[in-house]
Amino acid sequence: MTVDSKKSLAGLGRAELAAELALLGAEPFRARQLWHWIYHRGATDFAAMSSLARGFREVLAARYTLDRPSIAAAQTSRDGTRKWLLRLADGHEVETVHIPEEDRGTLCVSSQVGCTLTCRFCHTGTQRLVRNLGAAEIVGQVMLARDALGEWPSSKDERELTNIVLMGMGEPLYNFDNVAAAMKIVMDPEGLAISRRKITLSTAGVVPMIARCGAEIGVNLAISLHAVRDDVRDVLVPLNKKYPLAALLEACRNYPGSSNARRITFEYVMLKGVNDSPAEARELVRLLKGIPAKVNLIPFNPWPGAPYECASDAAIAAFSDIVFAAGYSAPVRTPRGRDILAACGQLKSASVKSRASRLPVPAAL
Predict the structure, then answer these.
(1) Coil, strand, or helix at residue 313?
(2) What are the structural domains of the chain?
(3) pLDDT category of residue 335 using cuts at 50, 70 and 90
(4) What percent of the chain stands above pLDDT 90?
């Protein structure tokens, strides 16, 4: 077995890890030990696993690695936001962002190389879908962030990484099996130990998968709404042509576990002259009736060649006031990381153009 053919154990679920060790004839408790070292201690070298016999460590090192995705580039914004361009084993790249706040630290995780969708206001949507990320590549983003932040073991108090949002590159519900497998590792109390209540999955509205998401992983749900009429949303979020507003909102009403304590977040990017009128704010209130909801109003984050402008501060404030007056929380999200294109809707692999002629085009998913 060559070095290049070694499999990384970082990112494997419990059953997969146990299966690998069974191939070596190792006792079942060895899988539990490895799980602790990989996901609680964050080990990057088998030699550090002091509770394992030296001979067993040598066997593991000869056959496996503990590699995460590698950092191709790292940027830090003036506001402390950090963005990593991660290179995967096949040479493709994705972006991951850490957003520090006073009461939390949120990691924005990608689920695809490129994106399945073509939302008009989103920079990622201008990058064609290359492939889905595997579960290990999704978990690897969390582990790499923990490495960079110095937050091992995972039970460390006052973490800088407390929350995860699946809002990076890609549509998570079009890669649900891998996303679910990854989040089960992230949520495991004996591993990365991030509560499902601290994890939010954002979707543009893949209606048939919403119920399954709630039933199988039960994380918080966020909907990229951005319009209150089908004709406008058909343009902004073309997926709406397949799953229109009525179907999407019905799925939200039935989302397992939603309640006043666990409200569904509706993301609404504010576009000048497109979706920012008082009439549309009132229609949004009408649409949300019966759904435990909060609204995040997102000032449009510009990117090179963007076809829209951000709504004015006055228009955003008036929109927010109408929604608040109806009893829904409607804060205006403070843009973070704009100067390094790390804000909402700005993620795109920086090297995608220069690499396009060199990378093989995979078969359609």
Answers:
(1) helix
(2) 3-65 (1.10.150.530), 70-355 (3.20.20.70)
(3) low
(4) 75
Average pLDDT value over all residues in the chain: 88
- In the predicted model, is pLDDT for residue 327 greater than 80? yes
Residue 252: active-site member: no
Amino acid at the residue 227: A
20 tagged catalytic: no
Angle at 256 between CA 165 and CA 164, to 5 degrees: 10
Q: In this predicted model, what pLDDT tens digit does every residue of 96-147 receive, in sequence order?
A: 999 998 889 999 999 999 887 767 767 655 678 889 999 999 999 999 999 9
Which of 115, 213, 252, 344 is flagged as catalytic? 344
360 CB burial (10 A radius; 0-12, 13-18, 19+): exposed
The token pair at 353 is 């153009």
Percent helix, strand and coil across the chain, each to the nearest 5: 35, 20, 45
| C-alpha span between 69 and 40 (Å, rounded) | 18
Nearest Cα residue to 94 out of 137, 135, 136: 137
Helix 245-253 crosses helix 207-216 at what angle (to 10 degrees)?
10
Distance, C-alpha 259 to centroid of its chain: 23
| Model confidence pTM above 0.85 | yes
Which among 20, 93, 95, 267 is annotated as catalytic? 95
- 239 or 344, higher pLDDT: 239
